[in-house]
Amino acid sequence: MARSDALQAVPRAFAKSGAERIAGTVIVVALHGAALYALMSHRILPVPDEVVTLFVETITLQPPPQPKEPPKPQPEKRRPVEPQPPRQLVAQAPVVSATEPVAPPPPAIEAPPPRPTGPVTLSAELSMSCPERTPPAYPALSRRMGEEGKVVLRVELDERGLVSAARVATASGFPRLDEAALAAVKTWRCTPAQRDGQPVRAVALQPFKFVLQ
User: Fold this and answer.
1) Which of 5, 34, 72, 127 would you label with 146, given CA atoms 20 to 30 Å apart?
2) Are 191 and 161 contacting, i.e. CB atoms less than 8 angstroms apart?
3) pLDDT tens for residues 91-136?
4) How far apart are CA 39 and CA 46, in angstroms?
5) Is 137 domain-assigned?
């Protein structure tokens, strides 16, 4: 009997001690909660919002220092160059003694005057230098129509005295009379004009007067 009572008393003791431990733990937790609430109510411990605010502060980073530029080399000071006086070339004449003969300078050669070019202009009428000349024929139609007038031709001769060109310088007023004068003068043979003894081309004026009789 006594042993059985002793065995029953052990679990009771354990049960009693466990309940006391639980009660003590609850009391400790309650005390800690009350202490924490008291600290928070008196602003002794920071609230969670304030703690977060303290960790959100930004940090301004300073820019890295820029490297300093190396000093520029100073240009060397050059001494001013003094201008040299211009050199003059002096030609020295040979010394001639009083007894040494001096040759006279050569005579100046005059250049010949330029020879005139172009045809020679005859001062007189062309007929004066043309032994072979045929007078112009009076056109029959101009005779019937009573056409009269004076035509002046400009005639060019070549070196042989032949007419190389002819044109009307002053018209008569009637083309038929002008054409008759041109046809006649182109058959003329004249004496060639000369310049320095050489035959050259020549230019002259030749008038023709058409008059009905």
Assistant:
1) 127
2) yes
3) 455 555 556 566 677 777 777 667 667 788 888 888 888 888 899 9
4) 9
5) yes
CB 133 within 8 A of CB 188: yes
Residue found by looking up tokens 């001062």 in the block: 123
pTM of the predicted model, to two decimals? Answer: 0.46
For strand 202-210 and strand 149-157, is the pairing parallel, antiparallel, or unpaired? antiparallel
- Name the token pair of 186: 């182109």
- Residue 101 counted as domain residue: no
> How far apart, in whole angstroms, are the C-alpha atoms of residue 17 and residue 131?
182
Domain count for the chain: 2
Q: Is 182 in contact with 166 (CB distance < 8 Å)?
A: yes
Average pLDDT, the chain: 75
Whether residue 35 is contained in a domain is answered as: yes
- Domain region containing 157: 120-210
Q: Which of 122, 117, 116 is nearest to 191 (CA)?
A: 122
pLDDT for the residue numbered 52: 44
Position 170 in a domain: yes
E strand segments, 73-148: 120-121
Q: Please tell me the total number of residues recorded for the chain in this structure.
A: 213
Pairwise pLDDT comparison (162 vs 213), residue with the higher score: 162
What CATH code is carried by the domain that includes residue 138?
3.30.2420.10
Flag whether pLDDT at 19 surpasses 90: no
